[in-house]
Amino acid sequence: MDSEKAFLSEYNINDYERPSLTTDVAAFMISTEEKQNERKGPDNKLRLLLIKRGGHPFKDMWALPGGFLKKDETIEECALRETFEETNVMPTALMPVGAFSKPGRDPRGWIISNAFVSIITEESVKQVGMDDASDAQWFSVSFDRDDDGVYHLSLEYEDVLLKAVLAEEKTSFGRGEFRIIDNGGLAFDHAAIISRALTVLRNEAKNYDTIFDFLPEKFTLTALQRVQETIMNVSVLPGNFRRMVSSYVEETDEYVKGERHRPAKLFRRKKQ
Amino acid sequence: MDSEKAFLSEYNINDYERPSLTTDVAAFMISTEEKQNERKGPDNKLRLLLIKRGGHPFKDMWALPGGFLKKDETIEECALRETFEETNVMPTALMPVGAFSKPGRDPRGWIISNAFVSIITEESVKQVGMDDASDAQWFSVSFDRDDDGVYHLSLEYEDVLLKAVLAEEKTSFGRGEFRIIDNGGLAFDHAAIISRALTVLRNEAKNYDTIFDFLPEKFTLTALQRVQETIMNVSVLPGNFRRMVSSYVEETDEYVKGERHRPAKLFRRKKQ
DNA sequence: CAAATAGTGTCTCTAAGACAATATCAC
DNA sequence: GTGATATTGTCTTAGAGACACTATTTG
After folding, report:
1. Which residues does residue A95 pair with via DSSP β-bridges, in sequence order?
2. What pTM, to 2 d.p., does this model score?
3. Which pLDDT score, from 0 to 100, does residue A55 have?
4. Are residues A201 and A214 in the same domain?
5. Chain B CB contacts of A72 below 8 Å
6. Most buried residue, A34, A98, A206, A252, by CB count within 10 Å?
C-alpha cells in the first residue's frame, strides 16, 4: 500500500483545530477513625482526595487532582502520573467514569476531561504521611438524594466545608447526567464529576469485586463489611454479609489478636 | 477576582501540544429476517453499522462511523452528527463505552477516541432505506469466548466476512481490556472498541431498561423478548420473561392481527 | 463476669427457572 | 381440526434479609 504511505507523509495533523485533553481522578479511601469511646470499634468514613488550586483559574478553590495528557501516554497513565505528582499518592486501581466535554466547562478554552475513579488503601496513605498544611487533603464525603430528587454533595475537611447541589438529568439510557446548581466551592465542573464518580463506585461495589481494592492483602471480614457499608451507605447484618462474600474470599490461618473481644480470622481475596 | 481575568487574558492554549479527539459509534440494530419456512416466526439478528473507508488510512477496510470533534459541541453531539453524516442513520440513544488512547492506535498521529454504543430501531432504518451499493452496511454480529478465553468477533454482510480475534487483559477493576490479536479487516483498533461496546451493551441489557430503545413505541412482548435474547445470546421461557418485564411495561388496547395464530396485545414502556 | 466483636445456623420471603395448561387466531 | 404463537398459573429452587444463638477474647 504505497498510496497509504504517501497519504500519511502528506498528512499534517496540525491543519485541524484540536482541543486539549485532561484527566481528573476521584481518588477514594476509607479512613478508620480511631475509637472515640472506650470499648467501641472504629468508625469508617469515605474520603475523597482534593487539592487546593494554587494558580488560576479557580485559584484557592478545591479540585480533583489531574492534568493535561502528554504525548505517548494513555489517559490511564496520565491519570496515575498527575495524581502522584500533585498529591504524592499512587492509586492502585483506576476505573473510567466518562468524558466531560460541555463547551465552556473550562474558562481557559476548549478542554475535554476524561475522569476516573480510583481507590487508595489506607495503608498506602499512611506511608505517604500527609501534611496538614499540604495542598492535598482527604475530605469526608456525603452524597444523598433528597425527596425532590435533588442531590446534595458535602465534602468536609477540618473547618473547610464544601456543599454542592446538583440535579440529575435523565438521558436516553438509564445513566443520568448531573447538572450543577451550586458548585459549593469546587473548581470547574468537578462537583458533577464527583457525583458521577460516586454513582459509578456504588454501582461497582455491588459486585463484591471492587471493594477489595480498599484493603490490604489480608483483612478481617468485618473490615471488608465496613468498606462495603461505607461505600454503599447501607448497613448489612454480619451473618448475611459473611454468607454473601464467602465465595469471594478464602481463609488464612492468621488472626488479629489483642482487641477486647474474640480474635478475628484474616481472609484474603480468592483468585477465582 | 481581577487577577483571574488577567490570567485568562494572558493564557494561550496554543502554547501546549494537543491531541486530536474523535468519537466512534457502535450502532446496533435488531433485524427481523423474514420467515424462511411457512408458518414459522421471524428470525432475529443483532447487526452493527459499519462503513467502508473511502480514504486513507485503512482505505477500503471497514470501520465504525465517527469523526473529529468540533469546537462548541459535546462528544455526544459529535457522535450523533458524524453517524448521521456518514450513514444517514440518526441514533436515538447513546451510551458511553470508554476512551481509547493507546499511542500508535491511529497512524495519522496523536488521536484519542471516545466511543459510544448506540441503538437504532428497525423502523428508522427502513425509513432511510439503505442502498446495497452504499458504503454503509449492517453487519450481522457474533461474539463469543472460546474455551481458552480467546474472543472471536465475526461480522458478516453478504459476501464480506470479518473475523477478528482478541484477548482480554484483566485490569485492576473487573472491567477487562481487549487486545487485538487479529483485526480481521477492521480499521484502527475498532475490533477492540466493538468488543468493549458489546460487553457494555450486554451488561446494560440485564436491567430491562436499554432494550426498549430497539423497538418502536408499541410492541408485542414476544418482540421485546427476541430483542433481549438476541443481545444477550440466551433464551428464556416466554412465561418467565413476561413476568420479569411486567413491571416495566403497560398494556395498550391494540392487537396485532393477521398472523396465523392468536393475536398479540401491544404494550408500551411504562413511564415509572 | 461483663462487654464487645467473631462466627454459625435457621426461618422466611421473594425472584427466577421449569413446565403445564389454556386461549385464539389463519388456514 | 391443525399448527402456530399468546397468555396464565403453579411448582420448585436459590439467594437475600431477619434474627437467634454460640464462641472467645480483654479487663
Report:
1. A117
2. 0.89
3. 86
4. no
5. 103
6. A98
CA distance A82 to A60: 19
Q: Which nucleotides of C are covered by protein (CB under 7 A)?
A: 3-10, 15-20, 23-27
Query: What does the pLDDT average to over A97-115?
Result: 94
Query: Are A174 and B98 within 8 A, CB to CB?
Result: no
**Are residues A141 and A222 both part of a single domain?**
no
Beta-bridge mates of residue A137: A50
In this structure, what CATH number is given to the domain that contains residue A251? 1.10.10.10
pLDDT at A144 over 60: yes
User: Under DSSP, is residue A219 helix (H, G, I), strand (E, B) or coil?
Assistant: strand
Name residue, grid cell 484477548: B167
Identify the domain boundary among A205, A221, A236. A205
**pLDDT tens for residues A6-42?**
766 777 766 678 899 999 999 999 888 765 555 566 7
What band does A140 get if pLDDT is binned at 50, 70 and 90? Answer: very high
Which pLDDT value is given to residue A31?
87
Interatomic distance B91 CA / C14 C1' (Å): 38
With beta carbons under 8 A apart, name residues in chain B contacting A68.
16
Contact B164, B191 (CB under 8 A): yes
Verify whether the Cβ–Cβ distance B102 to A7 is below 8 Å: no
Residue A271's pLDDT band, with cuts at 50, 70 and 90, is confident
Q: Is B15 inside any structural domain?
A: no
Across A250-255, average pLDDT: 95
Residues B260 and B147 in one domain: no
Number of CB atoms found within 10 A of residue A207's CB: 11
Average pLDDT over residues A80-91: 93
Residue A267 CA and nucleotide C4 C1' are separated, in Å, by 21
| Burial (0-12, 13-18, 19+ Cβ within 10 Å), A213 | buried
Domain that holds residue A193: 20-205
Q: Which of B180, B205, B230 is at the close of a domain?
A: B205
| Confidence class for position B13, pLDDT limits 50, 70, 90 | low
* Domains held by chain A: number: 2
Phi, psi of B161 (to 5 degrees): -130, 115
Question: Is B62 among the domain residues?
Answer: yes
Asked whether residue A28 falls in the same domain as residue A112, the answer is yes
Q: Are A202 and A231 in contact (CB under 8 A)?
A: yes
CA–CA–CA angle B28, B30, B35 (5° rounding): 155
